Amino acid sequence: MELDIQCEEMSPSRWAELLTTMKSCKTIRLDDCNLSSSNCEDLSSVINTNPSLTELKLNNNELGDEGVEYLCKGLLTPSCSLQKLWLQNCNLTSASCETLRSVLSAQPSLTELHVGDNRLGTAGVKVLCQGIMNPSCKLQKLQLEYCELTADIVEALNAALQNKPTLKELSLSNNTLGDTAVKQLCQGLMEASCNLELLHLENCGITSNSCMEISAVLRSKSSLMDLSVGDNKIGDSGLALLCQGMMHPSCKIQKLWLWDCDLTSASCKDLSRLISTKETLTEISLIDNNLRDSGMEMLCQALKDPKSKLQELWVRECGLTTACCKAVSSALSTNKHLKVLHIGENKLGDAGVELLCEGLMHPNCNIQSLWLGNCDLTAGCCATLATAVATKQCLTELDLSYNPLDDEGIRKICEALRKPSCNLQQLILYDILWSSEVDDELRALEESKPELKIIS
What we know:
17-stranded parallel β-sheet, Leucine-rich repeat, LRR (right-handed beta-alpha superhelix), 16 helices, alpha/beta, 12% strand
C-alpha cells in the first residue's frame, strides 16, 4: 500500500485519519504538507510499528533538528526496515547529523539518504561520513545538494568512498567546492574499492583546470555511468579533455549532462565523435550552450551514424534557427534510437518545424517526446504538426508552450487529437492565449480521451 500526498495542509483530524492508514503502508510520501516536529513524533511510532515501511519522503517540511531526532528514535528500533529516507529542505542543521550518523551506523536496511537543501555544512557532513564508514552501513545513494559544503569536505568523502564499496550514487551539486577540491575528490574516485555509478557536480565552481582529473576517472572507472557537470564554466577546452576520457574503451558512460558549460560549436566536433562511436551513451544534455546551427549540424551527422545509440538529446536554448532544421530532419529520419528531443527556446520558426515534421513522419523515426516551446511558431505550422500528431503513434508527449498559436493553431491540433489514430498522452500549452470557446473544446477533449492530459 502507498500513501502519496503533496501540498496539503494537515488538520488534526486529517492527520489522525492518515496515521491509521500509515500503519500498513509500504511507502509514505508527504512532501510540502506543513509538517513539524510534533508530526515526527507520530511518524516515529509508525516506523516502529510498521515493519513493511521501506520508503519515507518528507521533503519541504519544517521538521527541524528536533523532528529528525524523533524520527531517528523510530529508525533505530530493531523492527525498522526503512530503505529510503528523503529529508530535503527540512530546515536541518549540523545538529541533525549526529543523530543521522547513529542511524547510518546501526541500520543496515537504509540504502538511500537524501538530505539536500539543508544547512548541514562541512562539519555536519563529516559526521555523516563517520556513520557511512561504519561496517554496518550499507548506504548506496547519498544526496547532498545545497548543503553549504566547502573544499574541506573532500577528505571525509574520499575516506567514505574508499571504505564503502556499496556507495553507488553521490550528488554534491550546488556546493562551493572548486577545482582543487574536485581534483582531490577524483583521487578518491580512482581507488579500486570505489564503485560509484553516478556523480553529480553541477554548479560546483569547476573549470577546465580539473577536467583532466575527471577525464582520468572516466577513463579508468568503468562503473561510472552517469556524470553531470552542468552549470560549470569548463568551456570547449574542458569538454575536449572530458571527451578523451569518455572515448576510452573502458568508459561506459550512459548519461552526460553539460548544460550551461560555456560550450560553443567548437565543442561539437568532439561531441559528434562521442555520439557516433560511444554506443553506451544514451542521454546528453547541452542546454544553454552557444552551439549554433553549425554545431547542431555536426551533432546531426553523428546521429546518423549506425553506431549511435543516443535516445535523448537536449539542445534547448542553443542559438539554433531554421537553418539547422533540415539536418535535424535528416537525423530523425535515419536514427531509430532517438526517443526524446528537447529543442525548445530556439528560433526555429514555422518553416523549421515543417522541416522537422518531414523527419518526424519517416517510418524510421521513433520519437516519443518532442519539446518545441518558445520556438517562434504560429498557427502557420499547425496543420503540418497536426498531421504528425495524428499519424505518428509513437509520439506521446508534445510541448508547444510560449508560442503564439492562437485559436486557429490550437483548433488544428485539436482536430488531430480527436482522431482515433492519435496516441498523444500529454500536450503542454503554457502561456498561450485562446478564447473561451477553444478552452471548452480542450476540456471536452480531455473528457472524451481520459488517457490525454492537457497542461496549460
